[in-house]
C-alpha cells in the first residue's frame, strides 16, 4: 500500500495505476511494451504528478526523466523526486533544453500545454525520437476559431511530424484543489446566496475526474503499439447539462444557493461592453463558449484502453470531501 499526500490530500492507492481495473482490462491478452526510457514534460501539474506515479508502477523509476522549470511548484517537484525518477531543469518553450536532456531512444510525453507543442515538436524531430505522446484538449472541437485554432495547429504539426504519436484529449478536468474550474465553482456555491446562470443552462458538459484521466494516459503509454498514430478523447462517461452539474454540486454541498438565469443576449451585451474595461473578469467569447455543447465520443478509449471514468456525482462527492478536509470550502 502506498500513501500519496503531495497535492492529492491523503490517498491510499493499492498497486498503482498500471494495476488498476482500467489498465488491467486494457491489457487482456496483450503484452505491455516497456520502452528503453521515458522523458516527460509537464510532470508537475496535478495530472502530471499522477501520471508519473502511475508509470513508476510499471517502469523502473531510473528509466524516467522529468523536465521541470525553475519556476515549477516546489512541492510538486519534491514529490517527483520522492518517486526516484531523474529530475532535470529546462523549459519546453526552449527546444535546446529538450535536446540537451532527451535521448533518441526515449519515449517523449508532453503534458504541458498545446500552445507549446509547436516548439517541442521541433525538438523531437531534430533528435529523431521514435515515439511521442501528447495530451491536448477537447477544446479543439470548439466552433470558435480563436478558441480552437491553436489546438488544431498543434495537432496538425504532431500528425505531420513523422514521429509515431498518440494524442490524448481530456475535457474539463476536476478532482482536487489544483483544478481551475470546479474548485472555484464549489467555493462560490458554498458561500454565495445567488449564482448567475447564463442562458438556459441546458448545454452539455462531460468533465473528467483527474485520477481517471491519469489512468487513461498511463494505459495509453504502456500500450504504444495499440495506440500508435491514434487519438483518444478522455472524458467523463456521461454528458450532463450545465444545470444538472450545478444541481448535483449544490445537493452534495448541502447548499441553499439559488440559481438566477441571465438571458443569453443580455449576458453577451454585458460582457461585450465589460471586456473593454481593464480587469473585467469575463469576455464575450467565454460566454459564447460556455453555451456550446461539450460532449465527446470516448468509445475508442473504451475499446483500446479499457477506459472507464467515474460518474460526475461520485467524482464531485470525492472532490467536496477533499476540499473540506483541506479547509477550502
Structure report:
- The protein has 14 helices and 15 strands.
- By secondary structure, the chain is an alpha/beta fold.
- It has a domain at 2-173 and 207-236 and 295-311: 3-Layer(aba) Sandwich (Rossmann fold), CATH 3.40.50.720.
- The strands form 5 sheets. The protein has a 7-stranded parallel β-sheet with strand order 5-4-3-6-7-8-13, sandwiched between helices.
- Strand 1 (2-4) and strand 2 (11-13) form a beta hairpin.
- Helix 2 packs across helix 8 and helix 10 packs across helix 14.
Write a short abstract of this structure.
The protein has helices at residues 21-27, 46-56, 74-82, 95-101, 117-127, 145-160, 182-191, 210-221, 224-227, 242-253, 264-274, 284-290, 299-305, 312-325, and strands at 2-4, 11-13, 37-41, 64-68, 86-89, 106-110, 132-135, 165-170, 173-174, 194-198, 204-205, 208-209, 230-234, 240-241, 258-262. With 329 residues, it is an alpha/beta fold. Helix 1 (21-27) packs across helix 13 and helix 4 (95-101) packs across helix 5.
Amino acid at each position: 500500500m502506498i500513501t500519496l499526500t503531495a497535492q492529492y490530500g491523503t490517498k491510499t492507492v493499492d498497486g498503482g495505476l498500471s494495476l488498476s481495473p482500467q489498465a488491467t482490462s486494457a491489457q487482456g491478452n496483450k503484452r505491455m511494451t516497456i520502452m528503453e526510457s521515458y522523458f516527460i514534460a509537464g510532470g508537475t501539474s496535478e495530472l502530471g504528478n499522477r501520471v508519473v506515479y502511475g508509470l513508476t508502477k510499471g517502469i523502473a523509476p531510473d528509466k524516467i526523466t522529468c523536465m521541470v522549470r525553475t519556476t515549477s511548484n516546489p512541492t510538486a517537484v519534491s514529490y517527483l523526486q520522492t518517486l526516484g525518477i531523474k529530475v532535470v531543469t529546462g523549459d519546453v518553450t526552449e527546444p535546446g533544453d529538450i535536446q540537451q536532456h532527451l535521448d533518441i531512444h526515449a519515449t517523449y510525453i508532453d503534458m504541458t500545454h498545446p500552445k507549446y507543442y509547436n516548439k517541442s515538436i521541433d525538438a523531437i524531430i531534430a533528435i529523431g525520437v521514435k515515439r511521442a505522446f501528447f495530451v491536448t484538449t477537447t477544446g479543439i472541437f470548439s466552433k470558435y476559431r480563436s478558441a480552437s485554432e491553436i489546438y488544431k495547429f498543434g495537432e496538425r504539426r504532431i500528425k505531420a511530424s513523422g514521429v509515431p504519436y498518440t494524442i490524448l484529449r481530456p475535457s474539463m478536468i476536476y478532482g482536487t484543489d489544483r483544478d481551475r474550474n470546479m474548485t472555484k465553482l464549489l467555493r462560490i456555491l458554498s458561500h454565495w446566496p445567488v449564482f448567475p446562470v447564463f442562458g438556459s443552462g441546458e448545454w452539455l458538459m462531460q468533465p473528467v475526474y483527474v485520477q481517471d484521466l491519469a489512468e487513461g494516459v498511463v494505459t495509453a503509454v504502456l500500450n504504444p503499439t495499440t495506440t500508435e498514430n491514434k487519438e483518444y478523447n478522455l472524458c467523463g462517461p456521461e454528458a450532463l447539462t450545465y444545470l444538472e452539474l450545478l444541481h448535483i454540486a449544490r445537493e452534495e454541498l448541502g447548499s441553499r444557493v439559488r440559481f438566477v438565469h441571465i438571458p443569453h443576449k443580455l449576458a453577451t451585451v454585458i460582457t461585450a461592453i465589460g471586456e473593454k474595461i481593464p480587469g473585467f473578469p469575463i469576455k464575450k467569447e467565454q460566454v459564447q463558449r460556455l453555451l456550446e455543447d461539450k460532449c465527446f465520443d470516448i468509445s475508442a478509449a473504451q475499446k483500446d484502453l479499457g477506459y472507464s471514468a467515474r460518474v460526475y456525482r461520485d467524482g464531485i462527492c470525492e472532490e467536496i470531501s477533499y476540499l473540506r478536509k483541506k479547509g477550502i470550502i
